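Write out structure tokens for Lipoma HMGIC fusion partner-like 2 protein.
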Amino acid sequence: MCGSSVLVLTRWLLVWVCASCACVMALLGGHLSPAWLLGQPKSITAPTVKHLDIQDKLSAWDIDEVMVRPSLGLWLRCGVMGSKNALFLHCGVYATVVPDVPSAQIAAMVLIVCGTALAVFACVLSFFTTCFRAMKGKSLINLIGALQALAGILCLLGLLLLPLSWNSRRVQNLCGPTASEFNLANCTPGWAMFSLLGGSVGLLLCTLLSFKADLSTTTDIIDDQIRRGKNVIFLL
């Protein structure tokens, strides 16, 4: 499985790898969601199934009113569109032209994207630490932990810069004309913002876990089993 190397898996190493994956999923979830800023709820009409026949084929439709919340994310936005009698929620990419995006948001996006890319790279590398624990005399686990710390700091800096763009035209259209820097007016933060915040803080915690994981793979018990010629070592 590891070629000529010894596969070592300990409890703390497993916890660290799983935590790294969870943080990456939280960061990616925040990136791919428009639910960063949530506007006021609006009512739209939507077709719903009234009843089904015996063969489970659609036989009738009802038109019901549903409440939706327009939202704005890093890249995506969801807005209510259409005529007065036929409103619908449309979602799509809006950050396509640089002049249309505030400079503070561009800086935040660059920091968050770089941080997320580093976190993904570190997460992929963490799977190889079961076989390779050193690189040029340095602990690979600790090096990955340093990458995770840098990724977390970059994402947090991006989150701190993002409120400086809340005085933009798009945010004011969603949240009201009184929206300004660090003031959301009629909007509320969405789950995607908290997801990225949690993932960023989690990366810093993963850095601390990496020290524990590294120590767990360099114990006397593991050294003894390696000297006995074992190629697979589990200490759970």
